[in-house]
């Protein structure tokens, strides 16, 4: 009994909880007989007890904590998620898989969890977590924040953590702002290393379905990757039984609400979703997932509503035989008609689709498409004629004059061209960027001409862009290149190439290697 008591005390001391020794002595004095005064006497007496009597000798932590450490606010029992409270449990045992604090997560609420809220852990463990985050910084930064415990305490004194689950900024963001204000030192976002923080200072997430524990992990992203689809299905079944899975033939007369009350008060987010040849109504736990899916469903319904206008615009486009022939080196001339009209449709819809929630807004956009589609497609045709003409002039210049001559330089040019002009580029490239393609292609032609005369100078300039090019290619392989942060880098890189290889053409925006490095950092964190 004494050994177990000492072990429990050691676990509690590790997290800053000190047992009230007077309360401990008084507690045992009431339960042990007066004639027990040695370890053998204690063992002999204990063996004669029934199971119920032995159980009465097991004290609870709350029985022995001093009043000022028995603060439920420091180690709360619940984690707020919307209007529901998820259970928290604690185990202070180094080496145990669930050492620290465990958040009990029902499967259908997994996608509603926000990593930013989990960052703040619970108040009783937050100071240690902040200290470990500071210790995990690179030495060149860490030396500005010593002694680390003092900075951790000062940070907690300056912020109000709030209850677990309460919405707030990311912990690292708040900490970086505090450090900048107090020391003037800027901590980059990618300098934080959460993986270096001991496991007991990160939530252990226990994912359950009914009474079955599916998995435990300290990594929310891992759980969402593995169980997210199943969690979405479970959430939809709970939150939108009336809505989920309805096949939609035309935009609903009653509209599609942006938010509804979900299970246990957690908000749910309906959206139209395009699935194969159908459009269905789905209910999401994650607002951003609904914002991504809804425009695709609206667009699918729009294509049905304006099908005749689309067919008419394709047929009437005045594509010359020469343009058709030049475009054939990229894709068929018939596909050119489809791409021009699709690109025009994308331009008219622009960012409006995500906000189409009423039948009136849907009908208004459909009418606008009917009025503007042909004129918008004709504008793109005129631009396309300039692009394919510049493309035709450039392609012959991308073959080196001698075998093995500036191989890497020419390969870089070919990679750049493939990224600008490729099957579907008319519908995939935003129109404001499509307008710049003739300038980009002219810049490439000037570079190719100069490369033949001075490959050394071209090589030096290419070294300034190659790192960014490789990062973008890797993002394409990983399917991340369409994210706005990567797109910002992608177009800034095209402008940077113009500034290096064809400066006389001018750039649309101010660019530099330093700015591209910052954009790359932001893209990698997106």
Describe what this molecule looks like in 3D.
By secondary structure, the protein is α+β, with helices and mostly antiparallel strands. It contains 23 helices and 8 strands. It has helices at residues 2-14, 21-29, 39-47, 51-55, 61-64, 115-119, 123-135, 139-142, 148-158, 171-183, 220-239, 287-305, 307-316, 321-327, 333-349, 359-394, 407-420, 425-428, 431-434, 437-453, 455-477, 484-501, 513-525, and strands at 78-81, 84-91, 100-106, 204-209, 212-217, 260-261, 267-275, 278-284. It has a 5-stranded mixed sheet, with helices on one face. Strands 6-7-8 form a 3-stranded antiparallel sheet. Helix 13 runs parallel beside helix 16 (359-394). Residues 66-70 have low confidence and may be disordered.
Summarize the structure.
The protein has helices spanning 2-14, 21-29, 39-47, 51-55, 61-64, 115-119, 123-135, 139-142, 148-158, 171-183, 220-239, 287-305, 307-316, 321-327, 333-349, 359-394, 407-420, 425-428, 431-434, 437-453, 455-477, 484-501, 513-525, and strands spanning 78-81, 84-91, 100-106, 204-209, 212-217, 260-261, 267-275, 278-284. It has 526 residues and is of the alpha+beta class.
Radius of gyration: 32 Å
- Sheet having the most strands: 5 strands, mixed
Strand adjacency order, main sheet: 1-2-3-4-5
Please state roughly what percent of the residues sit in beta strands, choosing from under 5%, 5-15%, 15-25%, 25-35%, 35-45% or over 45%: 5-15%
Q: Into which percent range does the helicity of residues fall?
A: 40-55%
The best one-word shape is elongated
Task: Say how many strands there are.
Answer: 8
Q: Specify the structural class.
A: alpha+beta
Distance between the termini: 53 Å
Low confidence ranges: 66-70
Number of discrete helical segments: 23
Mean pLDDT: 85
């Amino acid at each position: 009994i004494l050994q177990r008591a000492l072990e429990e005390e050691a676990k509690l001391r590790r997290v800053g909880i000190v047992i009230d020794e007077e309360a401990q002595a008084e507690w045992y004095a009431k339960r042990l007989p007066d004639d027990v005064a040695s370890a053998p006497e204690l063992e002999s007496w204990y063996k004669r007890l029934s199971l119920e009597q032995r159980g009465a000798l097991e004290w609870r932590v709350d029985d022995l904590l001093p009043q000022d450490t028995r603060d439920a606010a420091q180690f709360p029992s619940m984690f707020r998620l919307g209007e529901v409270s998820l259970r928290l449990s604690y185990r202070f045992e180094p080496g145990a898989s669930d050492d620290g604090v465990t958040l009990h997560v029902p499967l259908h609420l997994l996608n509603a969890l926000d990593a930013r809220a989990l960052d703040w852990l619970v108040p009783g463990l937050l100071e240690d977590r902040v200290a470990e985050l500071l210790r995990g910084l690179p030495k060149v930064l860490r030396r500005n924040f010593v002694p680390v415990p003092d900075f951790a305490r000062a940070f907690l004194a300056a912020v109000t953590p709030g209850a677990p689950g309460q919405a707030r900024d990311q912990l690292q963001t708040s900490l970086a702002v505090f450090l900048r204000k107090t020391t003037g030192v800027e901590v980059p976002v990618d300098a934080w290393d959460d993986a270096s923080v001991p496991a007991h200072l990160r939530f252990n997430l226990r994912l359950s379905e009914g009474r079955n524990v599916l998995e435990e992990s300290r990594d929310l992203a891992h759980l969402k990757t593995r169980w997210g689809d199943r969690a979405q299905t479970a959430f939809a079944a709970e939150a939108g039984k009336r809505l989920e899975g309805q096949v939609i033939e035309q935009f609903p007369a009653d509209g599609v609400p942006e938010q509804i009350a979900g299970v246990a008060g957690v908000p749910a987010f309906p959206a139209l979703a395009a699935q194969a040849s159908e459009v269905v109504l789905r209910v999401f736990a994650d607002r951003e997932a609904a914002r991504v899916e809804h425009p695709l469903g609206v667009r699918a319904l729009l294509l049905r509503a304006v099908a005749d206008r689309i067919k008419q615009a394709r047929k009437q486009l005045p594509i010359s035989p020469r343009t058709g022939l030049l475009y054939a080196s990229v894709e068929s001339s018939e596909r050119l008609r489809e791409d021009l009209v699709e690109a025009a449709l994308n331009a008219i819809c622009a960012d409006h689709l995500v906000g189409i929630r009423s039948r009136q807004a849907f009908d208004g956009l459909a009418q606008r498409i009917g009025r503007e589609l042909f004129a918008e497609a004709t504008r793109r045709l005129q631009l396309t004629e300039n692009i394919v003409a510049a493309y035709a002039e450039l392609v012959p210049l991308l073959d080196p004059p001698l075998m093995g001559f500036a191989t890497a330089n020419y390969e870089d040019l070919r990679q750049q061209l493939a990224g600008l002009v490729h099957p579907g580029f008319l519908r995939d490239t935003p129109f404001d960027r499509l307008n710049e393609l003739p300038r980009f292609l002219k810049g490439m032609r000037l570079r190719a001409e100069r490369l033949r005369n001075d490959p050394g100078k071209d090589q030096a300039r290419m070294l300034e862009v190659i790192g960014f090019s490789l990062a973008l290619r890797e993002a394409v392989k990983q399917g991340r290149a369409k994210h706005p942060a990567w797109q910002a880098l992608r177009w800034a890189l095209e402008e940077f190439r113009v500034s290096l290889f064809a400066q006389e053409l001018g750039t649309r925006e101010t660019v530099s290697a330093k700015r591209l490095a910052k954009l790359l950092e932001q893209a990698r964190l997106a």
